[in-house]
Amino acid sequence: MVTNLISNHYSTRLQARLLKPLMIALLAILGACASIGPGAIRNDQVDYADSIGQAATRQLLLNLVRVRHREVPSFIAVSQLVASYAVEYRGEASLSVLDRVTSAVQRQTLKETGGHLLAAGSYSDRPTITYSPIRGADAARMLLNPIPPGVLFALLASDQPAHLVLGIPVAAINGIRNITGTRQELINEGKQFREIVGLFDELSSEERLALRFVEENGVRSAHLVLADRNAPGPRENRLRQLLDMDASKHDLPIVFGLGRGQPEELTIHTRSIIEVMRALSQVVPLRPGFKGEMPNGLNPVDPLLTNVHIHAGNSAPSDAFAAVSHRGHWYWIDQDDVDTIELISFVMLLLNVADTTNSTQLPIITIPSS
User: How open is the CA angle 121-122-127, to the nearest 5 degrees?
Assistant: First the structure.
């Protein structure tokens, strides 16, 4: 009897040693759960932003495919995202120890149970996402309005490459058209335009270009400033020659318009977002059996898109930058295609700049996801 009691006593001491770290671990787990709010912000804000960005890129790619196949583009914006969390937890731990005054019945009960450890909890994450189709007046403003020239030159002044800022969104600069064709006069004019774009690129990299805004009578206008701290070099002289600019003017108002305009102004004819998409869609391969292709002589691919590639196939690749399915056919951009990714990302930036939709509009589609 004494032997059994001593054995039970040491068994209980062993249980106490084992249960003690378990109880500490349980308290640590419950303490960690208490900080789920700040932890959710750190993780989910980045994850949601990344998911929305990837979805917007796929939506743009799909709309380029639709435009290429003579279909109407369609945009849906994520207008609201409400993430709700619920955490509930419960823990319980007990430890029973034998001593010499414990009755025989109690010793037998404790011998069978010894103690227990209980942990229970529940977690739920139920975001509510609101989608708003862009249509009507909002779609007209975003897709059909010409891109403001001041916006493009602000992007140029913020170190965006000129071949992106001016290459596709601009239809003409001081009457020199961004055009392609088979006739010699069109070929020559297109070469001149691309030379102008290259000169803007070089002058921008040399920090010879700046932008300033002037507000008069409530109207805000942009001015292109050519640095005059040093004498103009051959690139600036060539740019002034091509654009027929006044050699004495270093501050040129940027105006929207057709033709050459005034020598002391920079006249820019910009395209709309839908025109940009139509130009970019030229690199999308047509699906098999599509009969709407125009002869290449009437619809040549813009030389500025020489290094831009969108691929097509019967199945999606596993490592694409973006991939979409359209009428049973897959289209994608390679993960390592820097030129195409750069241009697509720039068009996404233009879409964000041009998105003048009313942010207070009522939700059209609300989907609680579990």
Answer: 155
Q: Name the pTM for this structure.
A: 0.75
Is there a contact between 90 and 1 (Cβ–Cβ < 8 Å)?
no
Long-range pairs for 71-78 at CB < 8 Å and ≥24 separation? Answer: 73/143, 73/274, 73/277, 74/133, 75/133, 75/134, 75/139, 75/142, 76/131, 76/132, 76/133, 76/134, 76/365, 77/131, 77/132, 77/133, 77/134, 77/355, 77/357, 78/52, 78/129, 78/130, 78/131
**CA triple 50-345-141, angle to 5 deg:** 100
pLDDT (tens place) for every residue of the chain, 370 residues total = 444 444 444 444 544 454 555 555 555 555 555 456 676 677 778 888 888 889 999 999 999 999 999 999 999 888 777 777 666 666 565 555 545 545 555 555 555 555 555 666 666 667 788 888 888 888 888 889 999 998 898 888 888 888 899 988 999 999 999 887 778 888 888 899 999 999 999 988 888 888 888 888 877 888 988 877 677 788 999 999 999 888 888 889 999 988 887 888 899 999 999 999 999 998 999 988 887 665 444 445 677 788 899 999 999 888 899 999 999 999 999 999 999 999 999 999 998 876 544 444 444 444 454 4
Clarify whether residues 197 and 234 are in a common domain: yes
Structural domains in the chain (count): 2
Does an H or E element contain 246, and which?
none
Which residues contact residue 226 at a Cβ distance below 8 angstroms, ignoring those fewer than 6 apart?
203, 208, 209, 232, 236, 250, 251, 252
8 Å CB contact between 65 and 331: yes
Distances (CA, A) of 344 to 58, 147, 200, 211, 280: 10, 17, 21, 25, 9
In a domain, 106, yes or no: yes
Q: Helix (H, G, I), strand (E, B), or coil: what is residue 109?
A: helix
Range of the domain at 172: 146-271
The neighbouring-strand residues paired with 130 are: 80, 366
Residue 197 and residue 125 share a domain: no
Does residue 363 belong to any structural domain of this protein? no
Q: Does 190 share its domain with 243?
A: yes
CA gap 250, 261 in Å, rounded: 17
Q: End of a domain among 106, 132, 158?
A: 132
